[in-house]
Amino acid sequence: MSWLRGLLLTYSAIFMAFQAAAHELDPGYLDIREIETNTYQVFWRKPDVRGRPMPIEVRLPGNCTPQSGPDTVSDGTAWQSHWIAVCDQGLSGKPVTVDGLASQKTDVLIRLQALDASPVTKRLTATQTTLLIPEQQSMLQVGWTYGVLGFEHILEGWDHLLFVFALVLLIRSKRRLVGAITAFTVAHSITLALAALGHVSIPGPPVEAIIALSVVFLAIEILKREETKLRLSERAPWMVAFSFGLLHGLGFAGALQDIGLPEVDIAMALLAFNLGVEAGQLAFVGVVLAAGYVLKTVLAGLNVLSVKLVTSANLAAGYAIGTVATFWVAERIYGF
Questions:
Q1: Mean pLDDT across the stretch 276-297?
Q2: Which of 33, 102, 131, 200 has the fewest CB atoms within 10 Å, measured from its CB?
């Protein structure tokens, strides 16, 4: 049994590193709201990395007092702080910098709400750590910012991607696969909009646990698949995809609520975020299908492609998906 214990320890180490890397991709969020002329309420939220705040710090322009706020405090999922800053002559045309961002793999979303003006939403990245606050932001600029955020969010959402990957492996018919992806899209678009607008409110931890459980379900379906008999998830995969898509939409909404929606152009921001999610999802499916085609072509050229090999590969993938997803379920339930 020593080999089994060693294998379990290896799996645990891989999963812990996997989860830590995922948190390192979480975005930061800076909200600057003008409450009186040249007086701003500042909210600063940065990701948690292995139980500690990510080493990034916001620095307001030199005409602001104070330029930085108090030490951040953990809320269980991230680190945040609040303070009031007085900025002579306001913030228009002034630089806001996130120190330490250049050495990270994440972004920071900055949202500025001035008195009697449309909110400004911008992104800072590892290659652009300073932002000159513009006078005003157009609707198209808001849409682009939130579209990019949606695209990046789905590509960093390993549980969502694993669910889509399992659908691709499970469904043999291209027509049914298109139907399932479409149903998944429609479902999570509905709950994303309802939750982001405050019409539906469900605690995040149970939703995340059930999302992981949905991946476990698909892994089991892959392992139980028979060549001569289609299971319900293969005959009507849109039903499964739509049902679980409603839950995945709540997960997307949780991320969007953490980021925040502008008070003006809410519809544009919501639509753009959802379109960004869909673009990322379609890009992922395209890469998976292309990689599968190339692999099959190579194996066929080597005369090693066979039904037995494909079946064995699907079983291995099913066990791998199920193992990762089961770990997520346990981890998320433990975190309640």
A1: 88
A2: 102
Q: Between β-strands 95-99 and 120-124, what pairing exists: parallel, antiparallel or unpaired?
A: unpaired
Q: Report the DSSP beta bridge partners of residue 131.
A: 96
Is the preceding peptide bond at 55 cis, omega within 30 degrees of 0? no
Judge contact between 27 and 109, C-beta under 8 A.
yes
Average pLDDT score over residue span 312-325: 91
**CA–CA separation, 285 vs 165, rounded Å?**
7
State the pLDDT confidence band at 326, using cuts at 50, 70 and 90: very high
256 is written with which tokens?
């969007």
Distance CA(48)–CA(27), nearest Å, equals 10
pLDDT over 70 at 57, yes or no: yes
Task: Output the pTM of the full model.
Answer: 0.64
Task: Give residue 39's pLDDT.
Answer: 94
CA distance 133 to 111: 10
Pairing relationship of beta strands 78-87 and 39-49 according to DSSP bridges:
antiparallel
* Residue 275 amino acid letter: L
Which residue stretches of 224-236 are H helix? 232-235
Based on DSSP, count helices (H) and strands (E) in the chain, helices before strands.
9, 11
Interacting residues of 255 by C-beta distance below 8 A, sequence separation 6+: 153, 157
**Distance between CA atoms of 273 and 153, rounded to whole angstroms?**
9
CA 80, CA 312: separation in Å to the nearest integer?
48
Q: How many CB atoms lie within 10 A of CB 7?
A: 10
Which pLDDT band, with edges at 50, 70 and 90, does 248 fall under? confident
Token pair listed for 159: 């549980």
Residue 298 has pLDDT above 80, yes or no: yes
Residue located via tokens 């299971």: 231
Label the pairing between strands 64-65 and 39-49. unpaired
